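Our consortium's second objective concerns turning raw sequence data into structural hypotheses that experimental partners can test. To show how far this objective has progressed, the report includes one record in full. It was chosen at random from the queue rather than selected for favorable results. The single chain below, 265 residues long, was entered without modification.
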Amino acid sequence: MRVSITGWYGTETMGDRAILDGILSVLDGLDGNLTVKVGSLFPFYTERTFFEEREIFRRSAPKARLEIFSVKDRQELEENIASSDLVIMGGGPLMDLEELYIVRRCFRLAEKLGIPAVVMGCGIGPLNSRRHIGVVRDILVLSSAISFRDETSRNTARELYGDGFSFQVLGDPAAISAWNYKEAVSESYNGPEYCAVNFRGNPGGQYGKNIAVSDDDLRSLVFCLSREYGDVRLVPMHTFFVGGDDRYYLARLVLDVNMHTGGGV
């Protein structure tokens, strides 16, 4: 089976990597002879992801052949979609981003060629722009199947688009990745106990009023975790300048917390 996956790859966060890994695990359960082509905004960055996650991806889909194509190259995009048996929107939420038009282009081409296109375990929102709300509607109309990662996303979709769609909640593929990883390493890890936390630095520009957690809340959480575990490791969700590098935010957070705790983060 040949599958093309589109989303926000090329600027992927740790969450997007986990989503891709979870999708690979699901697809491998359907067909072990996979060719998975990931459409990327910046292919060089996704190449690094493939290198860093090679053991994880290999464990989820041992025989899968992974390829990358540029979604910004129209010919390359059209050739890869046309040669696929399935097209998946599988990376992050459908939200106020100009790149939604690329996803819509993939789905329109898939429909024209009679290729199933599915929204798989995505979130929805924030969607405040009427233009982007319309583009997401088009993507949903073009979808052969729609599954969201949580009830909140399904409720948001119903509020925006009514009951004319069949919205399923099948969970977040990233949760599959996290579970598989935990199962794989739980018996072999013999190191000291620690707590690893992923924070997204300053997400307000993307999520605005949807964010109800302040910097003070996060500092308090890290402080409590450091008292419980001693060793708290802050892992950036994102390390590319497009979309914001979380390491700057985390460095400031570590300095602030350590001044009050005397270390441990």
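The partners drew two points from this record. The two ends are 45 Å apart (CA to CA). Confidence is low (pLDDT under 50) at residues 204-209. Both points have been shared with the crystallography group to help prioritize constructs.
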